[in-house]
Amino acid sequence: MASRTLRIGLIPGDGIGREVIPAGRRILEALPKSLGLTFSFVDLEAGFETFQKTGVALPEKTVDTLKQECDGALFGAVSSPSTPTKGYSSPIVALRKRLDLYANVRPVKSVKNTTMFPDPIDLVIVRENTEDLYVKEEKTYDTENGKVAEAIKRISERASSRIATMAGDIALRRQRVRDSTGQTGKSANVTITHKSNVLSQTDGLFRSTAREALAHFQSQGVTVDEQIVDSMVYKLFRQPETYDVIVAPNLYGDILSDGAAALVGSLGLVPSANVGEGFAIGEPCHGSAPDIQGMNISNPIATLRSVALMLEFLNEEKAAAIIYKAVDANLEEGKFLSPDMGGQAKTTEVVEDILRRIPGENSLRHCQYFVDKETLVLFPSSPKHYLPTTTYFKMADKYMLRVTAGSDYDEANQKLVHVNTEQPIKISNPKLDASLTVRVQNYRGEPVNSPSSCAYFNADPHKSDLYSISFSFTPKKDINGHDLVFGNDFDHPIKDKLPPGFGQAMKIAQWFIDPGLYGDAYADEPYLYGPFLSSINTLRVGEKKEPTEMKGSEDKPIVVSEGADGDGVEARKKAGLPDEANARKKHFLKEQHLKDFTFEEGRNYSCDFFNPYLDFNDFALKLPGFSYIPGITIPIISYWDGQPLRYVLKDRSTNEVLFVIIFTLLPRHSEGKKEETKKEDKAGQNDEDLD
């Protein structure tokens, strides 16, 4: 076999780019000699840190070296200033233009199917890389009505034709692979994404040019269709398995490809390649993640897949296939996963596991070179509060819960909640009267004689739920629907205790659990609220009269369902509330709909807040599964700083608290203290009214 030497430029950039790009080099060095490939490397500078040191984000030496010496390159990540910084512009955007890397290619592929996506996801987004709004020709000027900012959106026939041709080539190549491996169920297809119904000149030119360029491929069996970009976003997340190759102008392609990362669980998995004629730069889709820089917990998978993608476009498909296979095997086994994937593995451990899966003598080499060139010190291990999974389960056994409720945060106004019983806590304040019940699956806590579960969790709608906060309330005066919010808040900062990748987890929670969530986890007094009407799981509108207290039994607990009772039926209809809970929650994501609704004085409202994500038994947050893993478990106890978890109903127009439910984590009592708790509990069982 003829040997080939490839010279690869290494541009780590900023943040975790300095951790993942060395992993990319390592995977290239570990490829079996039988491929006939050897590599040489040159270290190059670019990024915001380079700009801060030299005043230039993309040195000419970097560009010249890539043009004159290199066959390809690996680019890590860049940190961008959040405010305009004179003289700075994105080095990767500049590189794409300087090297005429006109295509950004981003494959999105699942390894295992999930209940959310039972069919395999295997698609490629091909993004035009050199123009659209990214030409960065902007200006701001004053008018009599204030400042106006404008940006040029440039679409050319040449660029549109090139990118569509690239998409057609990729679709044909993917079909050849499917044919050779006997895969069925999907055929070669290119979907053109645009907004020509509004932008008839720019997007209209992209659409017509792309169709013309793809006509050649239609004669070779590639089908061509198109989607308006907003419809494309919806369908991509509803039925991703139906797509093969998606081609889009720069801005739409950027948004689609980042969003599509949610389909497989993390940006840390999604690779990309910036491709031109005979040159390719592999680039992971994630950012510089300065919050986890130097902690050795960044996910190297996107970089390793980007290495393979670069090799594909350098016509080294066999080498690329070996890397893909090793990475997929790591993910399928799931033993070494980084924290953003719900695992505990360090960056170095993930890379070592993948290296051992590459055939040949190189597979036993170790990744001991993850050093910062400035300090020559090995990156530190995970922070002390980040505990191994086995440790946090052992820690969970040492604690128990106390649940209290009251009209405000003052402990003197809090009463012990009898969890998993039909003994409601009653709360009264100047704005409303309320009655609430708390259920927790597998409960262990105070009072010590509390049932571990209850019949509520046997009801069909709640068999998978882990807890419930069920309550009814009657306003003493009208409350506008926009003012009432429900959620969590804290007394003092938690930012130092937030787990790595918290920002991405927050986006997942907003997308899959509650799109109405808003808050600031990094504030001195952190909070996370949602509009009551779009956050609460079930809402029942009752009658406008003195409510008759409903009493459940241990065998037949009160289970609130969506709907209305008595004259509440007409009130619900008049207010325009959809009949189904999910439709009602979606309806109230619009601010105007919230403002149009009124919680009426004297009318009773019943509701239930529940979910299958927060496990109070193991003190863990269990997010729904993605792609190849059954679910993501975040060990809350690993980050616990002693603060209780508070659920708060409040009026955001006045910042007035209406009631608070507090979940407090306590060390397990000695037997003597348990007996004291029993006595205290018995004495206070009939003292439940709060004013």
Q: Can you tell me about this structure?
A:
It catalyses: (2R,3S)-homoisocitrate + NAD(+) = 2-oxoadipate + CO2 + NADH. It comes from Aureobasidium pullulans (Black yeast). With 691 residues, the chain is of the alpha+beta class. It has three domains: 200 residues, 3-Layer(aba) Sandwich (Isopropylmalate Dehydrogenase), CATH 3.40.718.10; 161 residues, Isopropylmalate Dehydrogenase; 255 residues, no CATH class. Helix content is 28%, strand content 25%. The protein has 18 helices and 31 strands. Helix 1 packs parallel to helix 11, helix 5 runs parallel beside helix 6 and helix 7 packs parallel to helix 8. It starts with a strand and ends with a strand.
In short, what is this structure?
With 691 residues, the chain is an alpha+beta fold. It contains 18 helices and 31 strands. It folds into three domains: 1-80 and 87-100 and 277-382, Isopropylmalate Dehydrogenase (3-Layer(aba) Sandwich), CATH 3.40.718.10; 104-264, Isopropylmalate Dehydrogenase (3-Layer(aba) Sandwich), CATH 3.40.718.10; 402-612 and 642-685, no CATH class.
Number of domains: 3
Number of helices: 18
Helix vs. strand class: alpha+beta
**Separation of the first and last Cα atoms:** 86 Å
Shape assignment: globular
Give the neighbour order of strands across the main sheet: 2-1-3-12-11-4-5-10-8-9
Strand content: 25-35%
Low-confidence stretches: 361-395, 624-632, 670-691
What value does the average pLDDT take? 83
Task: Give the biggest sheet.
Answer: 10 strands, mixed
Q: Please provide the count of β strands.
A: 31
Kindly provide the radius of gyration, computed on alpha-carbon positions and rounded to a whole number of angstroms: 29 Å
Helix content: 25-40%
